[in-house]
Amino acid sequence: MSSVGSRLVPGTFVRHPGRPDWGTGQVQSVIGNRVTANFDNVGKRLVNADIVDLEVIEPDAADA
Fold it and tell me: How far is CA 29 from the centre of its chain?
């Protein structure tokens, strides 16, 4: 079992390492390996956490 649930919870700010143009995302839900995040530049995206390791960022860094 992955550790997705332990570090990604609703409200967590993230970045997609392969899509920096998406901007900062905020996790909306986590169901198993499926993470839904709302990104600044592209809206809601469903990410498979088994394939993509979303980078957790601090809330202060989300403003940068």
Answer: 10
Give the residue with greater pLDDT, 62 vs 2. 62
pLDDT tens, residue by residue, 45-59: 999 999 999 999 987
Q: Which residues pair with 23 in a beta bridge?
A: none
Q: What's 48's domain CATH number?
A: 2.30.30
Query: Is the dihedral angle over the CA atoms 41, 18, 46, 56 positive or is it negative?
Result: negative
Q: Is residue 38 part of a domain?
A: yes
Closest CA to 47 of 35, 56, 39: 35
Q: State in Å, rounded, how far the first CA of the chain is from the last one.
A: 33
Domain that holds residue 20: 4-57
| Domain presence at residue 63 | no
